[in-house]
User: Fold this.
Amino acid sequence: MARTITNDQIIEMNELYLKIKTYAGVSRAMGGSPSPTTVKKYIIPNYISKENRKMKVFHKDDLPEFATEIFDGVDNWGDLCLLSKDEQEGIKEFWNELTM
Assistant:
């Protein structure tokens, strides 16, 4: 039966990998479980250690004003869920920032 790996374990693996530099070493440091193969699967390329991350602080005043007029005349509300190419690229960039 496959064991479930939690988000906390994935972060721990990546933090340990930055220090130890081997999958087997990370596996040993975590008590022999998960296996080195499993560790390799969860290593995030270009991962940045928690202590080296810069936190961005957002304030309510930094957000653009919300305009309800953008919804006037919408026939198919499902179309509002479709993303443009620029929006898709923006989400990819944002996801990369979140996973670093």
Q: What stands out?
A: The helical segments are 7-20, 23-29, 36-42, 85-99. The CA atoms of residues 27 and 36 lie 6 Å apart. The mean pLDDT is 88. The chain is about 45% helix and 0% strand.
